[in-house]
Amino acid sequence: MTELRGDGAATSEYRWALPSVLLGDGSAGGRVRRSTRDWIVDILLFLLACGLTFLSLIELRAQHPPEPLMFAEQVTGALSCAAVWLRRRWPVALAVVTGLLSSYLEMPGGASVAALFTVAVHRPFKISGPITLFNLLTLIPYVSLRPQTELDRTWTAALGVAIVLTVFAWGIVIRARRQLVWSLRQRADSAAEEAKRLERERIAREMHDVLAHRISMLSLHAGALEFRPDAPPGEIAKAAGAIRANAHLALQDLREVIGVLRHSTSEGEGGEGGEGTVPERPQPTLADLPALVEECRHAGMDVRLDLRADGAPEGPGRNLYRIVQEALTNARKHAGGAPVTVTVEGAPGKALSVEVRNPLGGRHGGLGVRHGARIPGAGAGLIGLTERAELAGGRLEHGATPQGEFVVRAWLPWPVETTQEDDA
User: Fold this and answer.
1) What span, in angstroms and rounded, lies between the C-alpha atoms of 409 and 344?
2) DSSP characters for 171-199?
3) Are 101 and 83 in contact (CB under 8 A)?
4) Which residue, of 147, 162, 179, is where some domain finishes?
5) Predicted confidence band at 297 (pLDDT cuts at 50, 70, 90)?
6) Count of Cβ atoms closer than 10 Å to residue 202 Cβ
7) Is residue 93 exposed (0-12), middle (13-18) or buried (19+ Cβ within 10 Å)?
8) What are the Histidine kinase/HSP90-like ATPase domain coordinates in residue numbering (predicted)?
9) What pLDDT shows up at residue 304?
10) pLDDT at 210
């Protein structure tokens, strides 16, 4: 059986599976572990029941009832006060028994109030409502059977109704507040889980874009060595150095991604996020695009860059860089040796657009060059680029043209700067 603390807390394993239990709607008779706050509340309610019982005893002695009735009042009053400690385990049964005793006896009234309050807090209205109605009905035999004047009966009935309704309303308010707090905690947990999921997706996209670029470069250089085993030693050394450099960068990128994932996992398990934070490397922007093109040229690709956009914001510039990087990676995979044209245009207030175009199948004027086997691909790159563009508020299109080319086009918003410096 799942162990619950009296304040409604449970282990994280059952946090989502048992929301009703966390609100106090669990099955009766289950084991209850009281927290310090629960002990304080239970002691206060026990003292309240004892205080009301003592006041009833003083009033009864002033009325001089028969000895058998006085003895029954004292015994039931003491037992009812002791039974208050069972209110968390059997609240409904305690409310019914004490309410039934209060239909004629006066001293169990304090315990009846405590039991009614517990039912209102820990049970839904479909249970607490009938229990409250039952307590109201028990006032009828009490005011009718106990010897009192007509005026006393009226005041007793009015006071009893006021006490029952006040206690019930108080319990309903506390229950509603607990439900609100639980709902807010659940929403906060859901928001935290969603944030973690989005961060993992972002890391996965970055890992795919970066590692796919590095590994395709490795495959290109390795294919060149395989295709030209009799190349001059200088070219072989240059290709081997490029392979070593790209392998080192790929391992470094993978190490950083694993470090970020481990850090986020430790935070999710309750680790401190202030120390040991894994810093992210500066993300590339539009200004780094010429360096990317130059790196591809050193790897043997025929890339032509037409850059007609300067000063793009960091966000759109980074997304455009990743789009071009993935498009060049796909060109190396599926159209090795074909010339690639990259055209970038944009201005503030207009869309930042990019077009990456290359002939299909690595053919250019009937001649094609491919070093080694085709690099495998799952097609997830273009899907990720489409999602990236849509999340940035833009769109992306890709596909073959009737002219035998494969084209990737993307449009990203470039907002106008809202702040301008006044001319002095």
Assistant:
1) 10
2) HHHHHHHHHHHHHHHHHHHHHHHHHHHHH
3) no
4) 147
5) confident
6) 13
7) middle
8) 318-414
9) 92
10) 66
Do residues 85 and 44 make contact, with C-beta atoms less than 8 angstroms apart?
no
Q: Which of 353, 356, 334 is closest to 345 using CA atoms?
A: 353
Taking phi over 0 as left and psi of -120 to 50 as alpha, with beta for the rest, 6 belongs to: alpha
Residue 331, in any domain of the structure: yes
What is the DSSP annotation of 335-377? STT--EEEEEE--TTS-EEEEEEEEGGGEETTEE---SSPPP-
| In a domain? residue 375 | no
In this structure, what DSSP letter does residue 421 have?
P
Reading the block at residue 407, the tokens are 């084209």
Which tokens hold the place of 177?
A: 């507040």
352 has which bridge partners? 412
Query: Rounded to whole angstroms, how far apart are CA atoms 170 and 151?
Result: 28
Is residue 411 in a domain?
yes
CA distance 325 to 337: 17
Element (H, E) at 33: strand 32-33
Predicted confidence (pLDDT) per residue in 328-354, tens digit: 888 877 776 789 999 999 888 788 999
Q: What domain range includes position 328?
A: 285-365+380-416
Name the domain count of the chain.
Answer: 2
The secondary element (H helix, E strand) that includes residue 64 is none
Cα separation, 314 vs 320, in Å, equals 10
| Greatest C-alpha distance within the chain | 121
Q: Among the three residues 114, 147, 180, which one is the final residue of a domain in this structure?
A: 147
CA distances from 226 to 6, 147, 185, 223, 229 (A): 71, 111, 59, 5, 6
CA distance 38 to 115: 15
- CATH code, domain with 395: 3.30.565.10
Q: Are 92 and 125 in contact (CB under 8 A)?
A: no
